Amino acid sequence: MAELTTFIILGLFALVAAIMVITRRNAVHSAIWLMITLFAVGGIFLMQHAEFLFAVQVILYVGGITVLFLFVVMLVDIDVQLKQARFARQWHLALVTAFLVVAQLGYALYNHGSGLNLPSRPMVPAPAQNTQAVGMALYQNYMLPVEIASILLLVAMVGAVIMAKRKLE
Amino acid sequence: MIPTEYYIYLAGALFTIGVIGVLTRRNVLIILMSIELILNAVNINLVALSHYFKSVDGQVFAIFVITDAAAEAAVGLGLIIALFRNKETVNADEIDLLKW
Asked: Residue B3 falls within a domain, yes or no?
């Protein structure tokens, strides 16, 4: 029962903070609420014994990406944004589209009237050391994807530097 | 032991909030933040099913998703800085150079 309570608290934190992210006028507030959402999602990872992913989430998302967002929000002019309308012109159409997404998700989840039909789980025991198991999988089964991801990060870094450079010669 | 369905419902709700943010907001920065919300919903799904099947493959995929999110944030924010320098706006309605 304590587990369910923890899940409900974390889930509510994540959802309420996510709603705050998309409704705040000031982008700095949005970034702070995004931080809370990411923390709550990290807690949900921890509940499922994904300790390594929790560490990655906190270090990379909360500590890296959100700070990057805050930097850029403060670089661009926030005084102008505060006076403008929050939502785009097409927001009616956007809400209809979002409702269609919800309807599709609900239909997919309740397709057979009995919730989700997950296949039966295999009876192998869970790996005891999560970080060790993830490391083994990353560097043995997923060696090529790791290399491709490293090249992707390099390309993204070069791209970001070129984009943000003052003038292209 | 929480049913795996609950995690998937939570991920669906978070995904929907992200979609609404991408479609309705005019501030490009908040559109990028909504994309991060969508990617986090995907990660919740991957980790929940990885826990259900007692395999770490889902967590490895979640790590790749986080890698992509970092790359996307770096390039996207660089684009926003370049855009703000040239057009003095971060409003998605005013960025219509390709529209005719």
From this structure: no
Domain assignment present for residue B15? The answer is no
Q: What's the one-letter identity of residue B75?
A: V
Q: Mind telling me how many Å the CA of B52 is from chain A's nearest CA?
A: 7
Q: What ipTM was estimated for this complex?
A: 0.91
CB-facing half-sphere around the CA of B45: CA atoms within 13 A: 14
- Tell me the mean pLDDT per 10 residues along chain A, length 169: 90 94 89 94 92 92 91 78 71 87 83 62 68 89 93 93 74
Q: Quick check: is B20 in a domain?
A: no
Q: Report how many domains make up chain B.
A: 1
Across the interface, whether the CB atoms of B20 and A159 are under 8 A apart is answered no
B94 touches chain A (CB under 8 A): no
Instruction: Single out the residue of B36, B21, B37 nearest to residue B74, CA to CA.
Output: B36
pTM, two decimal places: 0.88
